[in-house]
Amino acid sequence: MSLVVSAGGHSFCLQARRGFSISKSKVPKLSPRAALTEARPRVNGSLAVQVLRGDRAEDLQAEARAMARAANASIYSPELLARKYGSRPVQALKRTLEILVALGSFALKLLLEQRNGMLDRNKRKRAAELRTIFTRLGPTFVKLGQGLSTRPDICPPEYLEELARLQDALPTFPDADAFSCIETELGVPLDSIFSSISPSPIAAASLGQVYKAQLKRSGQTVAVKVQRPGIEEAIGLDFYLIRGLGLLINKYVDIISSDVVALIDEFARRVYQELNYVQEGQNARKFKMLYADREDILVPDIFWNYTSGKVLTMDWVDGVKLNEQAAIESQGLKVLDLVNTGIQCSLRQLLEYGYFHADPHPGNLLATPEGKLAFLDFGMMSETPEEARSAIIGHVVHMVNRDYEAMARDYYALDFLSPDVDVAPIVPALRDFFDDALSYTVSELNFKTLVDGLGAVLYQYPFNVPAYYALILRSLTVLEGLALYADPNFKVLAASYPYFAKRLLTDPNPYLRDALIELLFKDGRFRWNRLENLLVQGRKDRDFSAKDALQPVLKLLLGPDGEELRTLVIKEAVRVTEAVVLCTVVDTYNSVPPFMRTLMFNGNGGGPLVMSATELESMIELRDQVFRIWGLLRSSENFDPALFQPILQVLQQPDARILGGRVVGGITQRLAARLLQQVLRTPAVPTSSL
Q1: Span 59-72+174-228+278-316 CATH architecture
Q2: Catalytic residue among 301, 318, 359, 410
């Protein structure tokens, strides 16, 4: 069986080494007495609650002690780095020459091969060489390579595959240094914490390495991540030099419109955050609280008593990397099921709570033997601003509607453009790209193709793509890439659409309510096919609620700002009622024996209504569509007739009565007009054969 552990910002999957047992401990993090109490909650329920509260308090105290141990953790400060390394010109020059020689020789080889027409033939060889160079240059460049390994918009496939190997195998540092670090950080001897610990690391990564151990107190199997010695000094000097290069690029390279220094600062800030293992533990706890409520999601617990700024102790997790299809299927699991779980969880991260895992490469996502998707490594997290969450969903709606003017305006809310930038020149570029891309349905679009095409549009104009958005694209691109291993026809947008549909139908957010109205109404007519499609897709989401889909719409309809919508709804209600009534008349007429039809309609066998065949067909289609939509609502898992009670209460309000009166009045007028047509028609010339 494979084991997956997390280290230095990345997690690793490897075959079990000889001498190590592979088992996942089921022992809860409770003292023996608490465990016994938990086993007998019926004897004294209040005692069990008290014990749980006590454990929670103890856990918070342990976390506070861990925070105190990490009080001196470094933070990224360009000013401090400039003062520190600006006074060490010899050290800075030596490191600069080391980097220039390594990368310069590589660039020279690429240039020569391009001139000789050998560039494509030697891609794999050069990609492996670049991976070796990054490894030799140290942790900063390993982190850079790991970032590039998830950027298919920048690197060819050969480079992506080779750089991805940076996440799996890096040189280790001496075990004696690691064990000394554990004792120094935690302030106690190693043998007082662990009853056993692997004599050598299970895996190593850019910022640290991982050991497998067993806690002496509880007997639980844990993963212990230990930070590389001297890591702060190494990355500090590198970021000082890289930032200096960024300043030169900003000043002299006009072809790059982005603020390179800002991007470097953002990247450096995230790497420094990964150096604080207490922060990573807190990230894991928050992630678990928000998303591990689903039975198919697993997040390991953190052991705060054995955690500090440079040591992180967490649950040991058995599992298989998500890109190891054969190993996953040998356990009776399906890769696509796990990827779908990852996509749904990612959408919740990005668009519900806005707190998301910013480094979801295959090593950080694994399939457990129980079929759960485990998330590991919470050193790199990010947040989607609240305004942007709704704007992203609205952006999808505008894309479906091909409303390119609205799409361009969305970039203000997404913080792509400053308010003083005119979006008018951007609209034609969006139209040119999306008109071609949307020749397929949205569910058939390949996400990477969409990202690449949109990236080409963004490159032409003064966009400043926020870091959170780039991380969102990377997250979904990685998930789609994993799914494509198992199914070349997989489309991440198709898997995401049920979530978008559910949010549009059920979310009371005003921005999303406006987006729903925009999607459903066009030129004053209601698009029932759009509503039917939203319901069909939304029902595929496990959290879809028919009740939630009805209540917000009614509130909007009867609200003080709903007059325009009320006018549209009244017209549509009249049209639907007319269709139902008249189609019922036609169905009744068709059920009558032919010889009686002539008697019933005074010798006119042409039919009961003056109506063209096209108009009748349109009415039947409308009625059937409305009935199908009603059937979709009724067949929802949580459908209950009682959910209409609040609606009936709302309809008792004065505004609702006025609305109902207007609908009844409109229906009466339409049916009266139909009756008058029927009375005045010429019997000899039927317009439709029913």
Answers
A1: 2-Layer Sandwich (3.30)
A2: 359
